[in-house]
Amino acid sequence: MLLDEMRIDENDVGFVPSLGITFQLNETGKRIVELLQEGRSKDEIVLALSQEFEADWKRVYRDVEDFFLKLKVYGLMQ
Amino acid sequence: MKIALSGLNNTDNPAPGIGVAKGLSGHELVGLSYDPNEPGIYQRIFERIFLMPYPSLGFEELHERLAYIKEKSGIEMVWPNLDAELPLYIKHQEQLHEMGLTTFLPTLEQFAMREKAKLATLCEELGILHPQTYMANSIEDVVDITRRIGFPLMIKGNYYKAYRANTLEEAIEHSYTIANEWGFPLLVQQIVEGIELNYAGVADGKLYGGFCIKKLTTTDIGKVWSAVTIRNEAMEALAHRFVEHTRWRGAFELEAIATNEGIYLIEINPRFPAWIGFSVDIGLNLPRMALALAMHETVEPKFSYPEQKMYVRYVDETVCDYAEFTKLLATKEL
After folding, report:
1. B214 contacts in A (CB within 8 Å)?
2. How far apart are CA B138 and CA A58, in angstroms?
């Protein structure tokens, strides 16, 4: 999975070193990538983000679902 | 070492000569040009400039010209950098050596293996993916092939130029554009959607050095304007496989598309790319490595280079006496 090799710099720019492609992430996107790289599941990520951002899990779930879709569209995850 | 090299165009359609020259700084360099308008002539890189006969005139003309240049300037090596002239130099390497001119080129057989029309076979042998490619000897052929593979597709010249066509009208227009300039055959190639990666390397039966880039911006005809160094294991493995399989000798460039299914090899150029000066700036001077191999010196393979270094081409200006231009035009040398 390309996402595993993504490096995120101090400006929240994610770089995939084997392909030279870059993505601008926001704070939440960056956190989701970090959690995915730690091997967390979607449910675990939703739970972690709901707690960290003190947000309603249903809304967080929708955002995470949407972000996962984008990752797939960009070929970063299967 | 006094080296004569060609490919001095340094416009937005750059040739490799100036990048190669960058890697050979410290050596006496002589420029070989086909056109007095090539900017590289006036960049104060070359101690002498000579206009060359077009490759279509054959080896006799080339031999005569190189003998003259050798006598006038004392060149010891000739380093062709243009696709259209390479077959002539490769075919007559022995005669060039007999003239006392060193070369560092693939054999004719190696050169033929990577020709656009034969690339599919080589890719099969290498076990690498390759887009469907068909040779067209007429506009009628182009039309037939477009019916088979559909749109979008690429229309490519055998040596130069490649255009994307989204419709039959565009395919015909691009075919005429290329054929009018370079003639037939053309190649009609399926488009593979993905990320284009390029690898430049030097080999002499085995791979001695190379690096991989991703183009960031290109000119209208696809020439690199900015790029970033990357490490891609699949591309590195492909480069090793290509060199081991063909026993390649000389410079080369692999053009590939990375997709979810794997790497598609779309082209192998039998020379350095125009952005080879990038290798010098990242501490992997591939032209110098090629020169050392040509001189049969001991060369340590080197594949380490910094990742995420960015290459940026830019426009510069220079001023020279108009008399230089007219002298070159009139006497064919400077």
Report:
1. 19-21
2. 61
Residue B229 in any domain: the answer is yes
Tokens of B29: 């360099």
Distance CA B79, CA B66 (A): 12
Domain ranges of chain A: 2-73
CATH of the domain at B28: 3.40.50.20
Assign B247 to helix, strand or coil. coil
Residues of B in contact with A20 (CB under 8 A): 195, 197, 213-214, 216, 227-230
Disruptive mutation site among B217, B232, B264, B309 for chain A (greatest number of A CBs within 10 Å)? B232
Cα separation, B237 vs B265, in Å, equals 12
Same domain, B157 and B186: yes
pLDDT (0 to 100) of residue B115: 87
Hey, which residues does A5 pair with through a beta bridge? none
- Other CB atoms within 10 A of residue A31 CB: 16
Residue B34 and residue B98 in one domain: yes
Largest separation between any pair of C-alpha atoms in chain A: 37
Nearest by CB to A17, which of B213, B231, B260?
A: B231
Task: Considering only the beta carbons, identify the residue of B234, B260, B308 that sits closest to A15.
Answer: B308
Report helix, strand or coil for B235. Answer: helix
Q: Give residue A52's pLDDT.
A: 94
- Domain residues for the domain of B239 are 194-312
| pLDDT, tens digit, 9 for 90 and up, residues B117-166 | 888 899 999 999 999 889 999 999 999 999 988 999 999 987 778 899 99
Tell me if B121 is assigned to some domain. no
ipTM metric: 0.79
Q: Where are the beta strands (DSSP E) in B56-114?
A: 77-79
Distance CA A5, CA A1 (A): 8
Cβ distance B195 to A21 less than 8 Å, yes or no, reads yes
Is any Cβ of chain B less than 8 angstroms from the Cβ of A8?
A: no
How many Å apart are CA B321 and CA B115, to the nearest integer? 42
Domain CATH for B141: 3.30.1490.20
CB contact under 8 A, B216 and A20: yes
Assigned domain for B117 exists: no
Q: Domain A2-73's class?
A: mainly alpha
Any bridge partners for residue B258, and if so which? B195, B263
Taking CA atoms, what residue in B is nearest to A73? Answer: B260
